[in-house]
Every structure is written in C-alpha cells, then in structure tokens.
Amino acid sequence: MPDTTEYEATFAFVDADSDGLISAQEYADLMHRLGDTCTEAQALAAIEAMDQDGDGLVTLDEFIGYMSDHEA
Ligand SMILES: [Ca+2]
Ligand SMILES: [Ca+2]
C-alpha cells in the first residue's frame, strides 16, 4: 500500500477552493504562483493527462492514481 499522505497534501495545495476537484484554472493559477508560465492549453493538457473519467476535473483518486503511475 503506497503512502498517499504526500499526494493528499499536494492535492490540497493545488485545490485552492477546497472543493475536492482540481480544475485547469486552479492548475494554471498554481503554476503562476510558482513563478512558472502556463497557458490555458498547457493547463488543459495537464488536467486531461490526469483526468480518467473525462469530466475535465481531477479528483483526489485520479490525482493519486496518476502520481502513483508516474513516480518510480
Ligand atoms: Ca478546486
Ligand atoms: Ca475526472
């Protein structure tokens, strides 16, 4: 069983309005807060990569699933 505490903390950090979903807008805002440039298209692509049911929003489960798959 992987330790998901760190993922949950990261998710909560990105989920600015704490509604349990990460939107492309929240992702773009985070990138901007971190001093990164992020276009709307880049944010949408990032969300699409994590979004498993295609509703355009990333749940904690989808986020953890993505992180688990993409971390050695
Ligand atoms: Ca949110
Ligand atoms: Ca989704």
Automatic annotation (TrEMBL):
A GO cellular component annotated for this chain's UniProt record is:
organelle
**All copies of domain EF-hand, residue ranges:** 2-37, 38-72
Q: Kindly give the PROSITE patterns that the UniProt entry links to this protein.
A: EF_HAND_1, EF_HAND_2
Which keywords are on file for this protein? Repeat
MF GO annotations: calcium ion binding
Q: What is this protein called?
A: Calcium-binding protein CML
